[in-house]
Amino acid sequence: MREIIEIPKNDVIPDADDVLKAQGIPPGKAPSGNIKALVERTMGLFSQSCEPAGIISEISIPEFEVVYQGQGLNEKETPLDEIFVKADSLCLFAVTLGQKVTQKIDELFKADDYALGSMLDSAASIGADKTADNVEIAFLNLLSQKEKITPETGITRYSPGYCGWHMSGQKKLFEFLHPEEIGISLLNSFLMKPLKSISGVMVVGKKEIFVFEDSYSFCSGCETRSCRERIRALFKESRTNNEKGTV
Amino acid sequence: MEILKKISAGLQQGDDKKVFTLTSQAIQEKIPPKEILEKALIGGMKIVGEKFKIHEIFLPDVLLAAKAMSAGMRLLEPFFIKEGIPTLGKVVIGTVQGDLHDIGKNLVSVMLTGAGFEVIDLGSNVTPEKFIETAKQENAPVIGMSALLTTTMPVMGSVVELLKQEGLNGRIKTIVGGAPVSEEFAQKIGADAYGYDSTNAVESVKKLLNKT
What we know:
Strand order of the largest sheet of chain A: 1-2-3-7-4
Distance between the termini of chain B: 25 Å
Strand order of the largest sheet of chain B: 2-1-3-4-5
Largest sheet of chain B: 5 strands, parallel
Number of strands of chain A: 7
Helix content of chain B: 55-70%
Radius of gyration of chain A: 18 Å
Oligomer: heterodimer
Largest interface: A-B, 36 and 37 residues
Helix content of chain A: 40-55%
Order of helices and strands of chain A: EHHEHHEHHEHEEEH
Strand content of chain A: 15-25%
Shape of chain A: globular
Number of strands of chain B: 5
Structural class of chain A: alpha+beta
Order of helices and strands of chain B: HHHHEHEHEHEHEH
Number of domains of chain B: 2
Radius of gyration of chain B: 18 Å
CATH class of the largest domain in chain B: Alpha Beta
């Protein structure tokens, strides 16, 4: 199964509160007039410039093993290495917000409009995550139609460049998925163009398989430790889009 | 001088138009450009940095102030063509090889400029050799490196290692930062400093160069 997922713009527009939080403004703190005006302009620019698109392709465990090994540069032990072999379903994905939003951010910085550029960048990062949330929901819906979902089922995303999966893994991922079809290309550095794009694998399985200790060698160098909240979110009864994300 | 205070206040409010108009007025009043730069613009940015540190204002406020500073600088730059803009020192900055995420690096660059440093911004995907070559050519005492991807963080260690190999580690200091980078990581690779955000990075660079 390989599908291009249509994602309505309205589904990826970030909440103003999340943008403020990403800009370091604590929740509950009333923003100044200057900041309120910036948020308004940011939302306008985001709506004008974002062009969300997504693509997914189901993949078997043996096939993913080849994709995951990539060029053999992954960390020796990784959480994904242990998790994907226990999965019920695996699905490669790529999403993008398109090139316009990145272009706009660059233009703003070049015009010394740092505050607006930085805020639009935050909004676009949240928007890209929301775009990935949309393809995750689309994949779960497809599995649900095939009655492959139970109350015990969980889903988590992993991306090359994080948690020991080397960036060079992008090459094999692209060879399998072909996200060029939705306008994403792979650069020599294994980063994607447009920059506000996310690729990776969605792992579906019993919630228990996703639990791991953050004690891998590379965890000590990681400041975000966002894996913790994602694991916790799996075990909450109801999940919101904001609780999901790519590890 | 009253007008310098007004420029500083305008800058703190993030009002670039006001700063532009008042700086223009100050130049017409024959106030030395160096005084406008140091007392009004850099002085104003210093207050902005202090307010940010105690959470009285937030990142967007700081960046609006930086835009206002740029508006004033555009008018002052022609006066410094001969002798160059007086600076606290040069900093070579970039996002490390393999990484194209440059927003964090750009913010540090803006804040360093606002604090009075000359920033040589190499952009993103910068090789260790390029960092060191540029620092040597420009006689810059600091290299600032940014990374967003955990897989590109080791490049920071390569720069520190190369500096050691060339016997430059005492002369050229290194500072690292970026979302996945930690103080612990900075120590592990032997970097001289770690900046957890853009204003902290400025303070760290000042400490490295004894400019506090």
